[in-house]
Amino acid sequence: MNTYKDIVVVNGDWKGGHHGSYPKILSVCLDSERPFGVSEGWGHGLGGSSFTLKDLVEEKFIEIFNREESKAVYLEIITAYKQGVDQKQLASQLIEESSPHA
Length: 102
Known about the structure:
Elements: E1 5-10, E2 24-28, E3 36-40, E4 47-51, H1 53-58, H2 71-83, H3 87-98
Antiparallel strand pairs: 1-2, 2-3, 3-4
């Protein structure tokens, strides 16, 4: 089973958001061919899925994170996609940047 590391957690007061009880989460997994996970909620949430970098951007799932509190990661992913960066390389970079020792 692949283990995903949370990179961005966006709490909010949207329909179904319950004041942060069901945050929108962007996670990555280096061991998956679909290394980018997008979900809503902590473990028992409202669903989620895994994506390739191409699908994450082209199917507009990354737009969930086009918000003030997640803008830096959003822009990094969009830029990497446009520059043709390998998705595993990007996933590794995002994990490193989110590490408390980065």
